[in-house]
Amino acid sequence: MFKNISSLPVDVNNPKNDSIKETMITHNIDIMGLCKTNIAWHKAPGHMQMGERTAEWFEACHVSVVWNQTDPLTMVNQFGGVALISTNKIVYHIKSSGADPWGLGCWAWTLYQEKMANTPVWSFATGHS
Fold first, then answer.
1. Which stretches of the chain are DSSP H helices?
2. pLDDT score, position 129
3. What is the pLDDT of residues 63-89, one digit of tens each?
4. Diameter of the chain by CA atoms?
């Protein structure tokens, strides 16, 4: 599933976090891409990191987050950015993950391996409006 989240809240107790969790559980979603997370993750305190907020939602969870690392003046809130959340049994099939090589926060990817086949999944952001 893919969703334009239109800004994740910095506050981990915000109901928007619960709505992501509930959507994933209700619809049995193992992989969810989010665009326009609008957080410069390196500026967010540890307990507000995406991995921390999702850690107890599922049996297992892997999160790839990217943001614009080329903007030296950014605060915690920053336009753009994406996240790719992998959960439960699919986490055990992750071979690697990464981000756009320019540090612009345009896309994140995760590569899953099942027996002899590799399956790449990307989460994209298109523009910063």
1. 15-26, 50-54
2. 44
3. 999 999 998 877 888 988 999 999 999
4. 45
Across the range 40-62, mean pLDDT stands at 89
Q: How many CB atoms lie within 10 A of CB 65?
A: 23
Which pTM does this prediction carry?
Answer: 0.87
- H-helix or E-strand spanning residue 95: strand 94-99
C-beta separation of 116 from 93 below 8 A: no
Q: By the 8 A CB rule, do 55 and 116 touch?
A: no
Residue 117, judged by CB atoms within 10 A of its CB (0-12, 13-18, 19+), counts as exposed
Task: Give me the residue label for tokens 């307990």.
Answer: 47
Please choose, from the candidates 96, 93, 66, the residue with its C-alpha nearest in 3D space to the C-alpha of residue 81: 66
- Tell me if 129 is assigned to some domain: no
Domain that holds residue 90: 2-124
Two structure tokens written together for 79: 């336009």
Can you give the CATH number for the domain in which 85 is found? 3.60.10.10
